[in-house]
Specification:
Elements: E1 15-23, E2 26-34, E3 38-45, E4 51-56, H1 62-65, E5 87-91, H2 95-115, E6 122-128, H3 136-149
Length: 150
């Protein structure tokens, strides 16, 4: 039996990569699993997952948004792409946790979309961070750790 044409064929089991580092004194584990229809990224500190977010990576109307996307050489190239809309599925007991979670998810989705502009899978991010806020260095360290898995 062949998979539907809209879902790319991938080998079984799904490809998984892991990375770990100490970020602000906390051991942070990142796991990226590439399924045929989803990309799952989990980021844990202390082995817990408390929040789940999904981000559709593909453009819903590329001709309408292309004109507003920053170019790769722009000063804003480190910002998440504006067409990405993260949605919290579970968790985020406070607005601060929801905001930082959605920021991480949008940034990870931007990295995926920049790496492969034809990517159409939905990103699902599981977070279990010790704090609901992050300094600039902590944010970039965590994003760099995720990049090692993608």
């Amino acid at each position: 039996m062949q998979p539907p044409a809209s879902i790319p064929s991938t080998s079984y089991p799904a490809t998984t990569k892991q990375a770990a580092a100490h970020i602000d004194g906390a051991l942070t584990d990142v796991t990226c699993t590439l399924f045929s229809d989803k990309i799952l990224v989990t980021i844990t500190q202390g082995g817990r997952l408390a929040q789940w977010i999904h981000v559709p990576v593909e453009l819903s109307n590329p001709t309408a948004t292309d004109q507003y996307l920053p170019s790769a050489t722009s000063d804003d190239s480190l910002l998440p792409m504006i067409h990405l809309t993260p949605t919290t599925l579970l968790g985020a007991s406070t607005s601060e946790r929801e905001t930082i979670g959605q920021l991480y998810a949008a940034q990870i989705a931007s990295i995926i979309a920049n790496k492969d502009p034809d990517e159409r899978r939905t990103l699902v991010v599981g977070l279990g961070l010790n704090k609901s806020e992050a300094s600039r260095d902590e944010f970039y360290d965590l994003v760099d750790l995720v990049k090692k898995c993608l």
